[in-house]
Amino acid sequence: MHEGKLAIRAAKKKKKKKSIANIEKTNLFKQISISNGEEATKFSRCKQKKKSNQICKGKRMSISDTTEKMDIVCPQARGNQFNEEIIIEILSKIPVRSTLRFKCVSNFWKEIIADPYFKMKHLNHAKNDQNSNKLLINKMCLDKDDVFNLYCSTLSSVQVVEDEQKLDWPANCNPENSLLYCSCDGLVLLAVINGFDRHLLLLNPSTGESIVLPHPKSEPKYCVCGMGYDATIDDYKILAIDLHDMCQEVSVEILTLKGGSWKKICKYPAGIHRVLGVKDCGMYSLAFVHGAFHWVGLSSHCYTVISFNISNEVYGEIPLLEQMCNIYEARFIEHGVSVLGEMLCFSSTYYNPWRGMFKLWVMKDYGVKESWTELLTIRDDSDFFYSAKPIYMYADGEVLLRCNYFGVLSSIYRTSREPFELLPQCHTFKQGMVYTQSLISPKSLI
């Protein structure tokens, strides 16, 4: 009997200890969980009160800096702090669409994802991860309709795209025609055209957010535009260069997004002329690298690369090697600049009655003429080859090209290692560019 009572007391004592342990365990999980609890709210308010705890382009703050400030203001949130850092690290490595879905987890998660610090951390990680890059295609099927649509796909399969995903145009536009200009930090600059109505659109393809930009004095149809980030003022700038055939002088305008108005840039370099021929010859895009825009110009019957620094708004010139532009007996020549692997590139496509040829050079040391190095040469013996434009460089050095052909009125994407004899299977006009998935909202930039 006595032994039975002892057993009952031992069982109750064990049950009581287990209950206390469960309570302590529950409290511990409450302390380290990301929720709307008191300590998490304290930290969130602490971040919102101090601008130094946010991060913007040009003024980055490390995790250690944030940790030190949080220890001073919120010493009791030490456990939550470590857990938050882990959550931020995990979320910063997740694709945009999945990250946006996680905003529904709690208000605190929503605040984390919306914070400029997190958005920039997410972008920085995406820039170093090639899997975060997507191919944006502006496509019109000539056999079916005459409307342009936007699609995105991975970069692993570009010749026969099986994973194309159609993107919806913003609710405020349904363009008959559209023209892609460039991408910067996950944002895409393009012109949308409906009859005589033309305007510039800044779009984030990953989130679907967009804004309509002010009109430059030059119509978007007759100009080529580029977008870059000016770290000296923490703002984005857009450059527009007029390409109208009737213009004798080259007109250049610049837009600062926060300023909201275009400014004409005077004193175009003396003796430098616009490349004549095809409307966008030498200027199918403006290459932005090392804080400057670049395009091809003609100086004393020699091709050269013009630069324009967006911080001090000063023109410059990057000379080419003689063998880069002296191509004779060609019926058609097209030059262009681009950026591959953060290097300035110069490409030439020429065609004569016997064959076509594409050459690509890279400048390994920016501004050093002697550092121009021939990256690849592609020859095509067919009568259909028209031109090629470099779009992207893979980690192994292979280059993605957009190729056009005579008499076909269509274009196709292929890599530098694929044969050029293959023609497009359907009449489709395509434009394309590579963009990085980003959470940056265009509306936050104005």
TrEMBL record:
Residues 83-119 form the F-box domain. It comes from the Eukaryota. SUPFAM superfamilies: F-box domain. InterPro entries: F-box-assoc_dom_typ1, F-box-assoc_interact_dom, F-box-like_dom_sf, F-box_dom, SCF_F-box_component. Pfam families: F-box, FBA_1. Residues 165-404 form the F-box associated beta-propeller type domain. PANTHER family: BNACNNG10540D PROTEIN, F-BOX PROTEIN CPR30-LIKE. NCBIfam families: F_box_assoc_1. This is Ubiquitin-protein ligase. It comes from Solanum tuberosum. The lineage of its organism: Eukaryota, Viridiplantae, Streptophyta, Embryophyta, Tracheophyta.
